[in-house]
Amino acid sequence: MSDKRLALLEQLTSSGQADAFAWYGLAMEYRKRERWDDALKTFEALRDSDPGYVPQYLMCGQMLAERGDKEQARAWLERGKEQALKSGDTHAVGELEEALDSL
User: Fold this and answer.
1) How far lies 52's CA from each of 8, 33, 69, in Å?
2) What's the distance, CA 81 to chain centroid?
3) What letter does residue 16 receive in the DSSP assignment?
4) Are 44 and 15 within 8 A, CB to CB?
5) Distance between terminal CA atoms of the chain?
6) Which of 11, 80, 27 is CA-nearest to residue 95?
7) What gap in Å lies between CA 18 and CA 20, rounded to an integer?
8) Residues 70, 102: contact at Cβ < 8 Å?
9) Residues 21-45: pLDDT tens digits?
10) pTM beyond cutoff 0.90
11) 3-101 CATH, one of 1.25.40.10, 3.90.700.10, 3.40.30.10, 1.20.120.520
12) Is 60 exceeded by the pLDDT of residue 91?
């Protein structure tokens, strides 16, 4: 991924006014670059500002599981499942359940 993309996402989110997709993009960019702490902090900021943004839970949960933090991964995945159920997103519920089963 380009440094320009990362810089743009960091600029967009630095104002605190960015939408959930920009925060998600930044978290995923950090994840791709294996900047684990930055990715987690960004996912947490997104969760705090928009807890109903369901995709964040699966991606953060998977990242944490890959890093060996199964307890925290489970918490993210379970919270994501709750949010997906609230929003009626059965596809996401299935993906989150599958991820939970793999822990």
Assistant:
1) 24, 26, 23
2) 13
3) S
4) no
5) 29
6) 80
7) 7
8) no
9) 999 999 999 999 999 999 999 999 9
10) yes
11) 1.25.40.10
12) yes
